[in-house]
């Protein structure tokens, strides 16, 4: 289905006009015009109404039967004391194909109003349209609006359909008068309601499956701004917000067409179809436009509430407090000092931004507009003062995020860093990432500010954090392309060649530490030597270590946790030692607790928080059998390693429960003994669990199995990427066992719904797999186990 979004706005108005005429006919039937009443024309004109797969613009639900639309329908009965009023989407003439009708029947005390209402509502229900309705006098409507936020927001934008227009006018004027007179209390209530919606529904610009109506930056935020404007406290939303709002209405319109029902949540499996309905290339293009619209609305929403707070809190203190050269604070905002001309100072915009972030203040909207319109381009390479101002801005930490957003909305950032345009609003369509690429970069940079005292070059840390994913705007491996782009930007910013090299190296290897720590055996000397060779210097190592934390935290909880932090810390310690020339540490021996357990022989289990120690007689397949027991008890394995002493194997698992509290260690131990004795059918248990798991709602990529060359001299490294499911580690391990291989160690990581598992395997003689045919067989056997 491919439509023309430009026609959607017209289709919504046409449908509203058709519904108007039909409702006016119903009203006339339910309440025949009394003798002497005057008739007037209403309605917006138009053609078909409703929703049909045959009309790309959203026409078609048959209203049929008595009261079907007729040309010229629509009577206004003046002085009759009864009126039909539309609120909600019909009141705003924004009726999408699947929208319900919200109607209010106003009256001045008619005794038979119930009968009239029934004669209106039943034909609407019979038509199949959803209906939210109420019957009120003007006084009752005003009273309800006084206490019910939803009611007052609807009545503020109420639109007369039929009957006595004076009654409609009286109700609107009474509601608006109270809304304005009680604006301090009501606007605070409105703001609190918006905050609760945002907390519940998230931020539209950064969600995989946004709620078009209730998410922060969604349709209701624009309607809230319109309500603020109706209180005469702030201006109505401007043209950029209106354009963003119309785009979200078009997306909702397309969603209703694609799903053939009213819906507000844009789920993953509908995004390509909705993109097609709007004439966009694909879901990626749709979600990028969505992110831009949501951020435009969120930015305007924040500015509106700053205006509300400033006006309702009384006059601001007079006077101007200097913040930086040419920049002062005035009335709680950052403005330019008197007599300052931005045309003469290209660095002023960065200086003002840094001053605002360091003071924790917003830049006044008028000041941002002036700076955006009048600031000349920075010379290339940048002067030192410009780069220092950028570093100061980023170094302010979290306070820099809203200031950066102000500059970005005004188009300043892409003029300072032209390559920013390629990542601006770019979605990251997987559940691990909680932000678009550009927002992730500024979040990482401001998060890195916490580590500036732990590195020798805090300036390079902040700049590399800002640019570490800049390659995602280009095809190919973003670390490789990012290195090239970072070199260009570093030179543009005026960094000396040695610093450009360091910046490029950090961007190129920004994933090296977390990926190595979670996917390689840190006790293998090859692992440490390869990382040391890649980073080259301790300066780069400390920058990468700080960036790993900032990047992980800015990505989301699935990307960074205490388990990963501890592995990265261990890796950094070992690489630092290698770079200093210290001999590699010997392979770890059993701890006192492990040795004590080993002396007891087989089948012992110890659970200490997220650490599970399993001790059993050493035998092939022990690791994956133990993993099967853990999976059967709903434990998710994060990592696994093995050691042995006196023919007894000691396996350490890092685990987390899928939900709830961990199982009883005694139960785990009992099941482990049973599975080792061949008396527990783990496969059957896991098969039941697999059947109970809901399949993925969207197509998932096929699994991939790779044998990584030169990653170890003592084992063959096998990397498995697959959609996560219960017992995945057990299934893979069993495939290795069927190939007569033992798993010496494993690194297991789950990123959202995707598993990235790495295994160090050896043959029964304890050697890596060297035979090419056997390597192919192992890969195919593991792939078969994953299907």
UniProtKB/TrEMBL annotation:
<keyword id="KW-0677">Repeat</keyword>
<dbReference type="Pfam" id="PF01966">
    <property type="entry name" value="HD"/>
</dbReference>
<keyword id="KW-0808">Transferase</keyword>
<keyword id="KW-0511">Multifunctional enzyme</keyword>
<protein>
    <recommendedName>
        <fullName>Bifunctional uridylyltransferase/uridylyl-removing enzyme</fullName>
        <ecNumber>2.7.7.59</ecNumber>
        <ecNumber>3.1.4.-</ecNumber>
    </recommendedName>
</protein>
<comment type="similarity">
    <text>Belongs to the GlnD family.</text>
</comment>
<feature type="domain" description="HD">
    <location>
        <begin position="437"/>
        <end position="550"/>
    </location>
</feature>
<feature type="region of interest" description="Uridylyltransferase">
    <location>
        <begin position="1"/>
        <end position="322"/>
    </location>
</feature>
<feature type="domain" description="ACT">
    <location>
        <begin position="717"/>
        <end position="787"/>
    </location>
</feature>
<dbReference type="InterPro" id="IPR002912">
    <property type="entry name" value="ACT_dom"/>
</dbReference>
<keyword id="KW-0548">Nucleotidyltransferase</keyword>
<keyword id="KW-0460">Magnesium</keyword>
<dbReference type="InterPro" id="IPR013546">
    <property type="entry name" value="PII_UdlTrfase/GS_AdlTrfase"/>
</dbReference>
<comment type="function">
    <text>Modifies, by uridylylation and deuridylylation, the PII regulatory proteins (GlnB and homologs), in response to the nitrogen status of the cell that GlnD senses through the glutamine level. Under low glutamine levels, catalyzes the conversion of the PII proteins and UTP to PII-UMP and PPi, while under higher glutamine levels, GlnD hydrolyzes PII-UMP to PII and UMP (deuridylylation). Thus, controls uridylylation state and activity of the PII proteins, and plays an important role in the regulation of nitrogen metabolism.</text>
</comment>
<dbReference type="Pfam" id="PF01842">
    <property type="entry name" value="ACT"/>
</dbReference>
<dbReference type="InterPro" id="IPR003607">
    <property type="entry name" value="HD/PDEase_dom"/>
</dbReference>
<dbReference type="Pfam" id="PF08335">
    <property type="entry name" value="GlnD_UR_UTase"/>
</dbReference>
<dbReference type="InterPro" id="IPR043519">
    <property type="entry name" value="NT_sf"/>
</dbReference>
<dbReference type="InterPro" id="IPR006674">
    <property type="entry name" value="HD_domain"/>
</dbReference>
<keyword id="KW-0378">Hydrolase</keyword>
<dbReference type="InterPro" id="IPR045865">
    <property type="entry name" value="ACT-like_dom_sf"/>
</dbReference>
<dbReference type="GO" id="GO:0008773">
    <property type="term" value="F:[protein-PII] uridylyltransferase activity"/>
</dbReference>
<feature type="domain" description="ACT">
    <location>
        <begin position="611"/>
        <end position="689"/>
    </location>
</feature>
<dbReference type="InterPro" id="IPR010043">
    <property type="entry name" value="UTase/UR"/>
</dbReference>
